[in-house]
């Protein structure tokens, strides 16, 4: 109750302050973000009442227009939690972008890289924090969100609940954007599946962890030890969690024969900011994959049983996932009315639209990765 009253009071204060300073904030800080970029951005606030144009003479990409329909709510959500607020405000219809939300996200990623900004949304929060003394509040909110996230981490009991929230939404919904095979994973373009099988050296005696991962955990599978030539896990490791990675690889190692091979497809976080990532929450962790966790390649290597399981090959397929997500997003938007008629609210539809756009952008510019990892048991 206290937190709810506090947030209402904070929002009133922000409304008073932002009504006088909002537009200077947008113009000044988007100009700072784009200062060294080769981008064209138009920001239209409150139905074209206020407009900001940034045009680079060396623009290499198509112009993007950001429409902000509810500027007060937009700013409030972002200052409350910069990592999650942009997605939340999109869900609430505070903003949209042309040609698409993905175009805005990729513009911001490029501008960030060009301008060497520490955080994608730090500019949004820093100005308001300086003026409203909200810096401590932002840190507190970040910690609260992290503690909430810790409560849904993947214990044996919690894993099934977390997975249920995403994968058990109904096949009718998933059919609206997946291909006829219902493959909810990265497509490989310009590469045949047989090539992957050769890469993994797949033979007759295989166990695939991922097939029923939403019904079972590794502990409940009770697979026999030391009898499998190969173990294949496709995007299953993201449901394990940092603390349980050693246990995960110990189970794989125990199930493999000597000289057996494990093949993983994993979505990974770059090593450079893995420690920060694993100690915080974000839009994907909160709204899309509760309890989800991207390992890093270095984290995977450290979690392997020493001198027993080793990495022999790694293949990057990031761009394939970006294209896959673009296809899913296209189908998702084409079937919008059908999905709404199925009983899913517009906020849910926009949440998944933002999820597709955000992940595609991150894969396209290597801010997250997808890898094929081949492991071999040494004894």
Gist of the model:
The chain is an alpha/beta fold and 379 residues long. The chain has 17 helices and 9 strands.
Protein topology:
Elements: H1 2-34, E1 40-45, E2 50-55, E3 64-68, H2 71-80, H3 82-91, E4 95-98, H4 101-115, H5 122-132, H6 135-151, H7 156-167, H8 171-174, H9 193-200, E5 206-208, H10 218-221, E6 228-234, H11 245-255, E7 256-268, H12 274-278, H13 283-288, H14 297-303, E8 309-316, H15 318-334, H16 336-341, H17 346-364, E9 369-377
Parallel strand pairs: 1-3, 5-6, 6-7
Antiparallel strand pairs: 1-2, 3-4, 7-9, 8-9
Helix pairs in contact: 1-2, 1-5, 2-3, 2-5, 3-17, 4-17, 11-14, 15-17
Which descriptors apply to this entry?
single chain; 379 residues; alpha/beta; Rossmann fold; 2 domains; 5-stranded mixed β-sheet; 4-stranded mixed β-sheet; 17 helices; 51% helix; 16% strand
CATH hierarchy: architecture of the largest domain:
3-Layer(aba) Sandwich
Strand element count: 9
The tally of domains stands at 2
Q: Predict the CATH topology of the largest domain.
A: Rossmann fold
Write the H/E string, N to C.
Answer: HEEEHHEHHHHHHEHEHEHHHEHHHE
* Unreliable segments of 5+ consecutive residues: 117-152, 203-220
CATH evolutionary superfamily of the largest domain: Vaccinia Virus protein VP39
Q: Biggest sheet, in brief?
A: 5 strands, mixed
Structural class: alpha/beta
CATH C-level name of the largest domain: Alpha Beta
Average pLDDT, rounded to a whole number, is: 79
Distance between the termini: 58 Å
Strand order of the largest sheet: 5-6-7-9-8
Q: What overall form do the CA principal axes indicate?
A: elongated
Helix content: 40-55%
């Amino acid at each position: 109750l206290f937190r709810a009253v506090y947030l209402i009071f904070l929002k009133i204060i922000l409304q008073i302050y932002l009504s006088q300073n909002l537009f200077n904030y947008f113009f000044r800080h988007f100009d700072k973000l784009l200062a060294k970029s080769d981008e064209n951005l138009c920001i239209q606030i409150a139905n074209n009442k206020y407009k900001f144009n940034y045009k680079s003479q060396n623009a290499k990409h198509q112009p993007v227009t950001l429409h902000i329909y509810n500027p007060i709510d937009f700013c409030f959500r972002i200052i409350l939690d910069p990592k999650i607020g942009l997605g939340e405000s999109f869900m609430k219809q505070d903003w949209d972008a042309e040609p698409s939300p993905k175009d805005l996200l990729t513009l911001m990623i490029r501008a960030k890289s060009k301008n060497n900004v520490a955080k994608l949304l730090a500019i949004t929060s820093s100005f308001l924090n300086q003026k409203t003394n909200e810096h401590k509040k932002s840190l507190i909110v970040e910690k609260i969100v992290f503690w909430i996230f810790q409560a849904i981490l993947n214990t044996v009991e919690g894993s099934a609940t977390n997975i249920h929230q995403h994968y058990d939404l109904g096949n009718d919904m998933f059919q609206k954007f997946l291909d006829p095979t219902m493959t909810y994973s990265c497509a490989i373009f310009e590469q045949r599946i047989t090539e992957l099988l050769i890469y993994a050296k797949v033979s007759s005696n295989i166990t695939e962890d991922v097939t029923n991962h939403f019904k079972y955990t590794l502990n409940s599978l009770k697979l026999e030890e030391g009898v499998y030539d190969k173990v294949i896990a496709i995007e299953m490791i993201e449901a394990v969690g940092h603390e349980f990675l050693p246990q995960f690889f110990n189970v794989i190692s125990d199930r493999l024969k000597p000289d057996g091979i494990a093949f993983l497809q994993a979505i990974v976080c770059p090593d450079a900011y893995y420690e920060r990532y694993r100690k915080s929450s974000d839009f994907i962790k909160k709204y899309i994959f509760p309890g989800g966790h991207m390992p890093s390649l270095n984290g995977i290597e450290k979690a392997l049983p020493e001198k027993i399981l080793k990495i022999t090959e790694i293949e990057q397929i990031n761009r394939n996932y970006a294209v896959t997500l673009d296809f899913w997003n296209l189908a998702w938007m084409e079937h919008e009315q059908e999905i709404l008629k199925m009983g899913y609210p517009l906020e849910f539809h926009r949440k998944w639209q933002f999820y597709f756009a955000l992940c595609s952008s991150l894969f396209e510019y290597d801010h997250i990765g997808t890898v094929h990892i081949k492991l071999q048991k040494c004894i």
